[in-house]
Amino acid sequence: MSVGIDEISFYTSSYYLDLRTLAEKQQTDPEKYYTGIGQEKMGMAAPDEDIVTMAANAALPIIERVGSEAVDTLLFATETGIDQSKSAGVYVHRLLGMHANCRVVELKQACYSATAALQMACALVARRPESKVLVIASDIARYDLNTPGEATQGCGAVAMLISHNPRILSVSPDVGNYTDDVMDFWRPNYRSTALVDGKYSTKIYLRALKKAWEHFTAVSPLQFNDFSYFCYHLPFSRMAQKAHQHLAKLNHCALTPEQIEQQIADTLLYNQAIGNSYTASIYIGLCSLLDHLEADLSGQQIGFFSYGSGCVAEFFAGQIQPGYREGLHTERHRALLAQRQEINYDEYLSLYRYPDPQQGESVEIPQTTQGRFRLAAITHHKREYIPC
Ligand code: HMG
User: Fold this and answer.
1) Residue 219 pLDDT more than 90?
2) For the chain, how long is the longest CA-to-CA vector?
C-alpha cells in the first residue's frame, strides 16, 4: 500500500523586509545576502500572528475540502513553542472546528520535527489505511539584531494531509538517520531568539548529510542517479546549493554543475522570498518545486534531506504520483506572496520588538494580520485566538 502526502498548503505573513533594506542599514553589500546566502526577502509576523494563526491559515484549505470530521490525528511540529505544556495544535483544532475524537500532539527537534511527524503519520496510516493525519509545521525564525543570523530570519507554516493512495507523494519506508549531540544552534527556554555558532552549524549540516546519506544507501536500493530532484532543509538557499554539490561530489556524479543546480533550483524560490521557516522550510521547498516546475513530474523520485540542529537528520525518498497537481494550492500560494506588503526598516524594528507579555499582564492586540485567524488578546496568561 502506498502512503504519503495527499495535499499540501503553506502560509506566511503578509509582511516582509527586503534584505536590501537591511543591508543598507547595516552598510553591508546587498549582494552578500542576494548572492552570498541566496536570500532576497524575509517574512515578518504581525503582532497578532504566531505559530497557531499561521498553522490554521495553512491548514484551512485542506480542512475546507476534506471536512472537519475527516482527520483522526493532528501532529504539530514547531520550535517556536508558545507553551511548555499545551500543544499549539489544540488551538488549531478548535479554530478549524475539528472533531473531539481527533488526537493532537506537538513535536520538537529543531527543524527536523516536521519530518518525524510525517514519518509517524505514515506509520499511523499504514496501520489503519482509512485514517487521515494532518501534519502541520509552523515556525518564526528569530535571531538577535546585528548578528550574522539576522538576515536568515523568516516565518511560515505548512500543512500536509497524509493518507493512503496519496495524490502527491508516496513516501518510501527506507530512511537514513543521523543523530549527534552538538551545540550548533539552540534556544534555551528563557530566550526568544536562537543562539547559533553559524559557521560550525553549516559544517555540521554537511556532516549530517553525508552520514544520513550513507545510512540511506545502506538500507535503500535507490542511488543518487535515481533521483530527479532533491529537497533540502533551507535555512538559506545557498546552504542547499552547497549541500547538493557536496552530495553530488560524494557520489562522483557525472552531471554538469548546471544540471546539479537544476536538481534543486525550483525548490529554493519560495524560501528566497520568505526566509527560514525552520520545521516548515523543507516542505515549503517541496511546494516551491511542485508549483514552479512546468514539466510533468509523475513517477519521478525526489530525495529529501531534513536537518534539525542539535542535531537529528534524515534522508528519505518520495515518488511523485500521477495527477499530483490536484493536491496542490499553486494559485493560492502565488496570490499569497504577490499580495504581501513590504515594510521599511523602522516598521521591521517595531514588529521585531513588539512586546511579548512575560509577567502575565493582560493585553489586547490590534488587528494587523491579513490572514483568516488572529491572536486577539492575552488575558490572565491565556492566549485568545479568533477567526477574522
Ligand atoms: P556570515 O558569517 O556573516 O556570512 O553569515 P559570510 O561572511 O560567511 O558570508 C556568507 C557568504 O556570502 C560567503 O559565501 C561569502 O563569501 C559571501 P561562501 O564562502 O559561504 O560561499 N559574500 C558575498 N557574496 C557576494 N557579494 C558579497 C559578499 N560578501 C560575502 N559582497 C552564516 C553566514 C551562515 C554564519 C549566518 O547566516 C548564520 O549564522 N545563519 C544562521 C545559522 C544557519 O542558518 N545555519 C545553517 C545550518 S544549521 C540549520 O540549517 C538549522 C537551522 O535552520 C535551525 C534548526 O535546525 O532549527 C538554522
Assistant:
1) yes
2) 62
pTM: 0.98
- Residue 108 corresponds to which cell in the numbers above? 520538537
Q: Atom 39 (ligand 1): residue with closest C-alpha? A: 198
Chain position carrying cell 506566511: 12
Gyration radius (Cα) of the chain, Å = 20
- 150 flagged as catalytic: no
In the 8-state DSSP scheme, what is residue 310? T
Task: Please report, rounded to a whole number, the percentage of residues in the chain having pLDDT higher than 90.
Answer: 96
- For helices 198-219 and 237-250, give the axis angle rounded to 10 degrees: 40
> Active-site residue 164, yes or no?
no
Q: Grid coordinates representing 368?
A: 494587523
Contact predicate 9/329, CB 8 Å: yes
pLDDT digits (tens, 9 = 90+) for 308-320: 999 999 999 999 9
Q: CATH for 3-387? A: 3.40.47.10
Q: Annotation-wise, does 29 bind a ligand?
A: yes
Please classify residue 263 by burial: count the beta carbons closer than 10 Å to its beta carbon, then call 0-12 exposed, 13-18 middle and 19+ buried: buried
Give pairs for 121-127: CB < 8 Å, separation 24+: 121/73, 121/75, 121/160, 121/162, 122/3, 122/4, 122/162, 122/171, 122/173, 124/72, 124/73, 124/162, 125/3, 125/162, 125/163, 125/164, 126/1, 126/3, 126/164
* CA pseudo-torsion sign 209, 214, 220, 223: positive
**Residues 22/31, Cβ–Cβ less than 8 Å:** no
Q: Which atom of ligand 1 is nearest to the CA of 34?
A: 25
